[in-house]
Amino acid sequence: MLDLTPMKINDNNDSGWLDLALSSNKDNVQDLTNIKDRLILAYNNYENIITEYTTKPINSTFLQERKLLKNFYEHAPTNLNRNLLEQRNEHLFEQCPFCGRPCKPSILDHFLPKDLWPEFCIFPNNLVSQCDKCSTKKWSHYYSDIDNSVKFIHPKFFNLLQFIGIQIEINFPSPESIKQPNFVINFTLPRGMNINDKKKIITSHQIFKHKKSYS
Known about the structure:
- By secondary structure, this protein is an alpha+beta fold.
- Helices cover 32% and strands 13% of the residues.
- It is elongated.
């Protein structure tokens, strides 16, 4: 599995993306300027939300501005759009960071869903490449009230998924079935792994991988 932790931007920095939006000529730029300070405060709290994965995030205080914030992502001004296109299309990934499927991920996922937390629409640490299959499974889901935990592992903040191993068993039920063996695929985790990390891996991976087992 890919390790995207080197791509994380430290200190809750947005690499100037908000300034690119604020310097645009969009008709609604003044509305964005009016909430700039609130957005910066939200950015400063992003890492806490991600790392405190057993704590359900509080509801966004930007829901009234959701249309505005989504507009700056979906109809981004030229300079900002250049950065978005670079993240979406110009990566060199040959597998999905969420499921490991060999492909070139074509989706730019909002790890904290933009409909629920629109303040992170154009926050670069919240944008992660993802394959189309994982996108349909993750969608706007995030936290499980049943498990009291986040459902997914953020690839830019945790490198846990790279520790998943694979064991393949090949069985021949009978001499006549030599040309049609049965394959059993098991995912393995390192011995001695922290139980909370193990739980996070299993919870996330079982969403994207079905009919597999762990040992």
